[in-house]
UniProtKB/TrEMBL annotation:
Cofactor: pyridoxal 5'-phosphate
Organism: Novosphingobium piscinae
Any GO BP annotation: glycogen catabolic process
GO molecular function: glycogen phosphorylase activity; pyridoxal phosphate binding
Localization in the cell: Cytoplasm
Taxonomy of the source species: Bacteria, Pseudomonadati, Pseudomonadota, Alphaproteobacteria, Sphingomonadales
Ribosomal protein found in the keyword field: no
E.C. no: 2.4.1.1
Family classification: Belongs to the glycogen phosphorylase family.
Protein name: Alpha-1,4 glucan phosphorylase
């Protein structure tokens, strides 16, 4: 990238000082670190704005087609380092700040993680936004500007405690209020007939207003927009009620509006929680669709050409109501006939499915949906009648038609949001090859039979800028020295490393970088948790959302078995291991929170036991987020990707670890299958049942008790946990958790345990041959460049969106 003369360190220095004085309001001598941080961001932002305006103007002038990515989550993490690197200004900024005795890395650590996501779904959306800009594709991301978002996780006596994530407490220097982009979003009320047709008269209306954040592509190719919605009541305070002494009642409307943008994924176990979740999803979907249609009409005129100028991608089922909302706008506000509106809608919208778990395929009680969105319920019924007539005409059975219906008639009648998204889209994609094939044969089998050309695969990817270049500059430098800089622009060029996998000198340099990363992580975790870690031990890492299907419990049970074996056989040459866990459990997910407690109970017992010496350490990292991932992943030796086969759609952590030279231990699930195909069988540790075998076991009447009785290590580990060895203060704490494995074991922990334990011992043996381990690490780095989000977005653009 050829930088403007104005991008020199001296020019940046002058700009930072000007911003510090005139926009932050501080003299250089009085400025505190947070003042310098804000001045640095605002100075960089000024440079980004110029590129932002230029690329947006280019889109207007060329009338380019835009992509609109609707997602309830955007786990963007910290932006300063990312933006500096993509703008090519990191070194100049470091030099400018050094003139004032400041360290850029220290300022970067002052930036809070934006609390806009929970896990892989939100991080994928963030990677996609960066790749859209990198590939010079005009795009908007649409979501909610959560005030507190996903909670801040504290660990108190081993238990997860949720606290508000106050990331906006001191403002956000990256964002811009867009007062002109404000829309009314209605709820409830009634639908009445008028001379022109029908009119929805909501009982309640809330104003959605836009807040924009620039998203910078690699080498500043384009700056796109992340548009997040905030909510305000049309009448924030009822003064007559307030003056009459009803202070709470006077603010009720504003409280209801604020609740929409306060917390990500409010618990939906109660009717009130379900209503809030549905209100959130409609709120951001409606505002986004209104914005998209308004922009199209403003610049292109005829709403009928929307599919030619706009591609709307629904990121999972959360924005599915956008299908009905777009229909409402086209029919009620723009006067299209229903059939014509349905054609426009389906050609504009595409849907990404991220899960095969039935509970994650959202559905809403029909009375709730109809009360909240009466006009949309009418539209959904009308869509459903068309779809069911198609199914009947195609000769489908009553059972198939019932499965296809947008209304679930089994028990409580519910609106099936995944079915709505499927029928309202021209493309429905899975996110890994295995996941896509399972979609066709499981959750969408009958819809696939009716629309056999609609499902396609787009294997997920991660941005190599953040997940290699920025989080692991040492490794990036070694790779550049070895194969040149081409991989910086095209991650698939990393394959050139394959020819050097046997180069001992290169292996040693990569190992030196890995050890330095482990030393840095050990220091950080010592400050965070008080646990001392040996950087020469094998760092075995499982960091992800805590969920039973991801099987942190399998890892913990094997950890207990290993602990017993080390104590029972001290004469063996055990490989020193550090077991690192991290992740958040949904506040109402009892078993997931219990698993966190178990991890901490095991850690307390193991870490204080002198009989295992330095051979085993266990640490649970609190408040896992993007910034912690950027520290942990470059330091990992072993990546735990051990979900029950057939239950993980893709995973992206598996890609990030492999890109940073960690070897994977995992099942043939999600993208693990494709990673294995890329890196080779000798460079990955695969264990356990396949997805087909899992289904077969369940169908045959799986009996975990028989397996437990035949596995001494498993039996002893489960007994120790269930009997209170790790919970002497409450011996029955884990009785039901372990009892679930004995009784039904839906996630097949017992079935896969022996295979998993054997794979871990293969890991031990391989680790002792460091030359072989390094070769495998290099092969992993070399062959996972294909899992770049640039490749994924390129496939979306070509196959789904029709953009260049």
């Amino acid at each position: 990238m050829t930088l403007d003369p104005a991008s020199s360190a001296a020019q940046l220095d002058a700009l930072i000082l000007d911003v510090l004085r005139h926009r932050v309001g501080k003299d250089e001598l009085a400025a505190k670190p947070h003042d310098w941080f804000n001045a640095t961001v605002l100075a960089l932002r000024d440079r980004i704005i110029d590129r932002w305006i230029a690329t947006t103007r280019r889109t207007y002038e060329t009338k380019g087609k835009r992509v609109y990515y609707l997602s309830l989550e955007f786990l963007i993490g910290r932006l300063l380092r990312d933006a500096l690197a993509n703008m090519g200004l990191t070194r100049d900024m470091e030099k400018a700040l050094r003139e004032h005795g400041l360290d850029l890395t220290v300022l970067e650590d002052l930036e809070p993680d934006a609390a806009l996501g929970n896990g892989g779904l939100g991080r994928l959306a963030a990677c996609f936004m960066e790749s859209l800009a990198t590939l010079d594709i005009p795009a908007y991301g649409y979501g909610i500007r959560y005030v507190n978002g996903m909670f801040r996780q504290r660990i108190v006596d081993g238990w997860q405690v949720e606290r508000p994530e106050t990331w906006l407490a001191h403002g956000n220097p990256w964002e811009f209020d867009r007062r002109e982009s404000a829309y009314r979003v209605g709820f409830g009320g009634e639908v009445v007939e008028t001379a022109e047709g029908v009119e929805w008269k909501p009982a309640e209306q809330i104003e959605a207003s836009a807040v924009d954040t620039p998203v910078v592509g690699w080498r500043g190719a384009r700056v796109n927009t992340l548009r997040l919605w905030t909510a305000t009541a049309l009448e924030p305070i009822k003064l007559d009620a307030f003056n009459a002494g009803d202070h709470f009642g006077a603010l009720a409307d504003e409280v209801r509006a604020d609740a929409l943008v306060r917390v990500l994924y409010p618990a939906d176990s109660s009717p009130a929680g379900q209503e809030l979740r549905l209100r959130q999803e409609y709120f951001f979907s409606s505002a986004s669709i209104q914005d998209i249609v308004r922009r199209h009409v403003q610049f292109h005129g005829d709403v009928r050409t929307l599919p030619d100028q706009a591609a709307i991608q629904l990121n999972d089922t959360h924005p599915s109501v956008a299908v009905a909302e777009l229909m409402r706008l086209l029919v009620d506000q723009h006067g299209l006939e229903f059939g014509e509106a349905w054609d426009v809608t389906r050609r504009t919208i595409a849907y990404t499915n991220h899960t095969l778990l039935p509970e994650a395929l959202e559905s809403w009680p029909l009375p709730l949906f109809e009360r909240m969105l009466p006009r949309h319920m009418q539209i959904i019924y009308a869509i459903n009648s068309r779809v069911l007539r198609e199914a009947r005409k195609a000769g489908m059975s009553d059972q198939q038609i019932a499965a296809i219906s947008l209304i679930d008639e089994n028990g409580e009648r519910r609106v099936r949001m995944a079915n709505l998204a499927f029928v309202g889209a021209h493309s429905v994609n899975g996110v890994a090859a295995l996941h896509t094939e399972l979609m066709k044969s499981t959750v969408f089998a009958d819809l696939h039979a009716l629309y056999p050309a609609r499902i396609n695969n787009k294997t997920n990817g991660v941005t190599p800028r953040r997940w290699l270049q920025q989080c692991n500059p040492g490794l990036t430098g070694v790779i550049r020295d070895a194969i040149g800089p081409a991989f910086l622009d095209d991650a698939e060029q990393l394959t050139a490393l394959n020819a050097l996998a046997g180069d001992a000198a290169l292996g040693e340099r990569i190992a030196e970088v890995k050890r330095a990363n482990k030393v840095a992580l050990a220091r950080h975790l010592k400050d965070l948790t008080g646990v001392r870690l040996d950087p020469d031990a094998l760092f075995d890492v499982q960091i992800k959302r805590i969920h039973e299907y991801k099987r942190q419990l399998l890892n913990l049970v094997e950890t207990v078995a290993l602990y017993d074996q080390i104590r029972s056989h001290p004469e063996r040459d055990w490989v020193p291991r550090v077991k690192i866990f991290g992740g958040k459990a949904a506040p109402s997910y009892h078993n997931a929170k219990l698993i966190i407690k178990l991890a901490n109970d095991i850690a307390r017992r193991v870490n204080s036991d002198p009989s295992v010496g330095g051979l085993l350490k266990v640490v649970f990292v609190p408040n896992y987020n993007v910034s912690l991932a950027e520290r942990i992943i470059p330091a990992a030796d072993l990546s735990e990707q051990i979900s029950t086969a057939g239950m993980e759609a893709s995973g992206t952590g598996n890609m990030k670890f492999a890109l940073n030279g960690a070897l994977t231990i995992g099942t043939l699930d999600g993208a693990n299958v494709e990673i294995k195909d890329r890196v080779g069988d000798d460079n990955i540790f695969i264990f356990g049942l396949t997805a087909e075998e899992v289904e077969q076991r369940r169908a045959e009447g799986y009996q975990p008790a028989d397996i437990i009785a035949g596995s001494r290590e498993l039996q002893q580990a489960l007994s120790a946990i269930a009997s209170g060895v790790f919970s002497p203060d409450d011996p029955d704490r884990y009785r039901d958790l372990i009892g679930g494995i004995h009784d039904h074991d839906w996630f097949l922990i017992a079935a896969d345990f022996d295979s998993y334990a054997a794979a871990q011992r293969r890991v031990d043996a391989y680790w002792t041959d460091q030359a072989a381990w390094r070769r495998s690490a290099i092969h992993n780095i070399a062959n996972v460049g294909w899992f770049s989000s640039d490749r994924t977005i390129g496939e979306y653009a070509r196959d789904i969106w029709g953009v260049k």
